[in-house]
Design a protein that fits this description.
The protein has ten helices and five strands, in the order E-E-E-H-E-H-E-H-H-H-H-H-H-H-H. The longest helix has about 40 residues, at about 215-255. The protein has helices at about 45-55, 70-80, 90-95, 105-115, 125-155, 160-165, 170-180, 190, 205-210, 215-255; strands spanning about 15-20, 25-30, 35-40, 60-65, 85. It has two domains: about 15-115, Ribonuclease H-like superfamily/Ribonuclease H (Nucleotidyltransferase, domain 5), CATH 3.30.420.10; about 125-255. Helix 5 (about 125-155) runs antiparallel to helix 10.
Length: about 270
Amino acid sequence: MSKQAPVFTVVHPHAAGIDVGSRSHWVSVGEGAEYVREFGVFTQDTHEMITWLEQYEVKTIAMESTGFYWKPLFLMLQAHGFEVYLVNAGHVKNAKGKKSDVSDCQWLWQLHSVGLLQASFQPSDFTEELRTYSRHRRTLVEGASRQVAKMQKALTVMNIHLSVVLSDITGKSGQDIIGAILKGERDGAKMAHLADPRVKASRETIARALTGKWQPQHLFELRQAWDMYHFHQKQIAGCDACMEKLLQEKVEQTGQAELVFEPEKKNGGAKRT
């Protein structure tokens, strides 16, 4: 008994498939070569793509989530009323039966037209904006941490062991002392008095930790890392302001002010080291 080839029912008759790239996008709206076309990545090219898709009465489109190149195309297609399926590349590769002479965009069109592709979850505009700020902020925090490590390295190489007597060199005491070093102060005893009285280490111990060999190349490295650290802090504050504004607008729109988190104020200031 011979095997009968399976017959798939067309679920999306007005479908298209897009193979997303960094320099161009390949689009398919049908099986033949005449239904495949390459478009550039510029905004004008995308408008030409949209006009071409509308000529074939395309209603729904499938594209792979390739890097971050899909995002501007995805948003523009959505804005023009297309139902866009952002599909996981792994799901497309797992679908068996692709012929070698079928382009990626045609394969996407075939799978999508018979309903074999599932759209990935896409967050709301509010969530997407907040997530963008949050992810960028995390990158800035990581960058600031790298500069702290560089400051510690520059100090240690000069035999200045500030991190031994202070739990955090980016606290007020640490910043005051490093600031004094960069202004030319070399007397450990004088700099020890810049430490907050609540620091556990004695002034004598701090003075000993601040006695070392001052070398111009490492002082230069210290200053560069110091400047970069404070630049990152300024950028982080900018992200915080944007997120605070976005969240406040959301609260005003929804009227859910009770959902805003307000931490309890503790008696006295935070410990400064």
